[in-house]
Amino acid sequence: MDTVVVGRDQLDLLIPLIVEHQRACGREVDLAITRAFFEGVVGNDASFQIIAIEEGAAVGCVMVDPIPNLQFADNVAYVHDVYVTEPLRGFRGIGAILVAAAFVEAMRRGYEYAEGETEPDNTPARKLYARLAKKMGVGCKDVGSVRYLLDLRPGIERARNEPEYLDRLASPRLLSRLSAPPEADGH
């Protein structure tokens, strides 16, 4: 499995995931409006989308948008709408890989902080943020009952000293190791 930052060339892979996600959330889907919206945001320097691709098909996606958070930074990368296709959900770690890839891409784009959000009863997702932060060498702070703020500055600083650092973090093999629960990777 590979993760890819969505560009115009991957739009046809992203749209079916978006439609599936919207339907899973009980929303009616207007394909023309959905496509027009994503044609307008794909390739934006501030917002980005990442898809997980397996055997030529997109199997998951995550959205990242800048949000103001004047307490910590002018702009924070807001990681949201993590979606994995139903047959692959929950046992392969695809959602976690997408979140890790979003944090790496946020560092690559110079975001000093990233914020994630989950449902209060989603214990695995709540543990994921802290685990990823620890494994990536960045800070993680619970800033509300369902929001997590990651301080990406240590990763950005390390990338300044080790230019290949973010490329290493972004490798599919390492992303899957980053997203693995501690008992699965021996830590």
Write up what this structure looks like.
The radius of gyration is 16 Å and the shape is globular. It starts with a strand and ends with a helix. It contains eight helices and seven strands, in the order βααβββαβαββαααα. By secondary structure, the protein is an alpha+beta fold. A hairpin with a 3-residue loop joins strand 3 (57-69) and strand 4 (73-84). 33% of the residues are buried. It has a seven-stranded mixed sheet with strand order 1-2-3-4-5-7-6, with helices on both faces.
Give the SSE map:
Elements: E1 2-5, H1 11-24, H2 31-41, E2 48-54, E3 57-69, E4 73-84, H3 94-108, E5 113-117, H4 123-136, E6 139-142, E7 147-151, H5 153-161, H6 165-169, H7 172-179, H8 182-185
Parallel strand pairs: 4-5
Antiparallel strand pairs: 1-2, 2-3, 3-4, 5-7, 6-7
Helix pairs in contact: 1-2, 3-7
| Estimated share of beta-strand residues | 25-35%
Helix content range: 40-55%
Radius of gyration (Å): 16 Å
Question: How many H/I helical runs?
Answer: 8
Q: Secondary-structure element order, as H and E?
A: EHHEEEHEHEEHHHH
Trace the largest sheet across and list its strands.
Answer: 1-2-3-4-5-7-6
Low-confidence stretches: none
Shape: globular
Class based on secondary structure composition and strand pairing: alpha+beta
> Could you give a short account of the major beta sheet?
7 strands, mixed
Compute the average pLDDT: 84
Distance between the termini: 23 Å
Total beta-strand segments: 7
